[in-house]
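Structural prep section.
Before we set up the soaks we want a predicted structure of the protein with adenosine-5'-diphosphate in place, mainly to decide which crystallisation condition to try first. Input record follows.
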Amino acid sequence: MNVILLGPPGAGKGTQASSVSKDLGIPHVSTGDMFRENLKKGTPLGLEAKKYMDAGALVPDQVVVDMVRDRIAKADCAGGFLLDGFPRTIVQAEKLDAMLASKQQKIDMVLNLACSPKTILARLTGRRVCRACGAIYHVRNMPPKKEGVCDACGGEVYQRNDDKEETIMNRLDVYNRQTADLIAYYQQRDLLKNVNADAPREQTEAEMLAALRA
Ligand code: ADP
Ligand code: ZN
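Run finished without errors. Recording the tokens verbatim:
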């Protein structure tokens, strides 16, 4: 099953994607994680992406599309994948449709994590991430057992540059101007399923799994 997670930054895409992908046994493909991974390794792709990420802007479509094309061509994606953070523009969505069609594949479902502005802000400003494994925490809702240390791997838990208040506003603006149009795009194709992402994490996850198993 090929699934897309849609929703504003802070809706919980990354958190939900990592548990849902385990439940379904399909890989979690997060473009944000892939960029952060490249940045950590200091690859040219990572350094290129950093300019945009730090400003809360989008990395150019072609750069992201090429990266995703390579990723979903890998063997582990043959039985399906869960996309998180991609597509983020109509151009990316069209290119994704074209690349899947060329392999006689398609998107099976798009889950839209609908979330109020109040929740979004609280989640983004409190979000912390493990530098080593990418695990996501929240200073109030989901703190690591030991402050600053990842439960899963012992890595350093830090605040992403783009989770600082100045950048958050820009990211929300980018979402409203460029990404929100994807809701209509997938609605027209009869693929969209809305999920309440204001609810507690477990409830949202249950709603997502019910939709995916239906
Ligand atoms: P968010 O918490 O906003 O969902 P992500 O981890 O998905 O954050 O993405 C972080 C940053 O990586 C984005 O602000 C953007 O600069 C870049 N990025 C990730 N995915 C895409 C994409 N599909 N198109 C363009 N830029 C992207
Ligand atoms: Zn970790």
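Observations: The first helix runs from residue 13 to 24.
Flagged for discussion at group meeting.
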